[in-house]
Amino acid sequence: MCETAMVSSLAQGRKHFGNTLEPYSILLGGQKVYILTAPLDVSLAYKSPTLSYDSFNLDFTILYGVTPTSVHKVFAEPLKGAPRHSDPERNPQNKSVAHWSEELYRQQLHPGEKLDLLAQNFVLCLRDSVDWSRLACGNAKATHGVIEDVSLLKLCKDVIIDGATRVFFGERILQIEPDLAEAFCQFDNHSYMLMYKYPSLFANVMFGAKKRVNDAFTRYFELPKEQRQGETWLATMEEQEFRDLNFGNQDIAKFFSLMHWVVNANTYKLCFWLFAHLLHDPALYAAIKAETDRTFTNTTNNENIDLARLTKACPRLEAFLNEILRFTVSSQSTRRVDSPTIIGNKTLQPGAFVFIPYRQLHFNEDVFGADAKEFKSERFLQNPELARHPSFRPFGGGTTYCPG
């Protein structure tokens, strides 16, 4: 079942039950799945200790191809009183590697020195990627004098994915596999086949692309550390944790392939829709440009951008981005039911899964109005409180809130 079909099926299911927003269940490949679409039910699910993300995450990591032994080591809780590290700054609460990794992500992406350095390096990578000489040779579809026709989607893929890859993992990974972005997108576009356990006979494109990405990271980790410079603090710390568990390069590569997927799966799509709307709406383009022009400290060549001002003093841009997220995000949160759990007036049974489809939340007319199925760039500008409503979940929620 592809992503579009899944979205359509969930909409039909909600309609079948009279749009009551009560939990309902479906059988998917013989597996019972509960669907939650009411904001209150979703909030309860994120707080419930009996709806486990760890169980789902463990199963999916094995499905991705990491050896079960390594996966169970990552999720195993250390014995009390037996810290894994002598250095008190490394995992001071003695968490499992899986939970300690969540903390490492928070430290890398929490406002502060680590995030500032990452953002500054990303801007440098973006500037390099949109240099005219690179655009002219890498993305051109047709040439008309001094004008180049380029694929907007391919441009966003190349610029954003290459930039994020270079920032997180350094230049070496792209020297090993220059077409990593292409392989990643092939996998990402067909990743639903992995989620729904398509046999390899019918998913050769997905499995082939996944192998290319994994092979690139395997060759990357086979190199000495001194030949892999420029990675983020997060990547360094994650590798150190896996090395301490005596993981081989192939398993480490697969864990990092998953990290690469997390980093890149959504951003280039958001960028594409942002530019698509701007290019088709001159008035919106002019308004956003006027607001963001003030964030450049050198207006002659736009060399220096004030990232703090861009993220905190551009309400129209923020509202525009929120509406794009509301209108385009079609991902979902997944949990496994570990014991009987009451959500709404239903009891969810152990062994089943819970799906929280964000698109159903984002098109809730009781929250976003009768025009919820229309794109309105000023929706969140006119009502900023919508960004804090429990029906707006572009990055999920609970302990697994996604950095995007």
Quick description:
The chain has 404 residues and is α+β, with helices and mostly antiparallel strands.
What does this structure look like?
The protein is 55% helix and 9% strand. With 404 residues, the protein is of the alpha+beta class. It starts with a helix and ends in a 22-residue tail after the last helix. The longest helix has 19 residues, at 204-222. The strands form three sheets. It has a five-stranded mixed sheet, with helices on both faces. Helix 3 runs antiparallel to helix 4 (68-75).
Kindly list the characteristics that best describe this protein.
404 residues, alpha+beta, 5-stranded mixed beta sheet, two-stranded antiparallel ribbon, 21 helices, globular
Q: Which outline best applies?
A: globular
Count of β-strands:
9
Beta-strand residue percentage: 5-15%
Radius of gyration: 22 Å
What strand line-up does the widest sheet have? 1-2-9-6-3
**What order do the helices and strands follow?**
HEEHEHHHHHEEHHHHHHHHHHHEEEEHHH
Work out the helix count. Answer: 21
- Separation of the first and last Cα atoms: 24 Å
Mean pLDDT, all residues? 88
- Summing up helix and strand content along with how strands pair, one would put the structural category as alpha+beta
Report helical residue fraction: 55-70%
- Report the sheet with the most strands, covering strand number, pairing sense and barrel closure: 5 strands, mixed
Low-pLDDT parts are: none
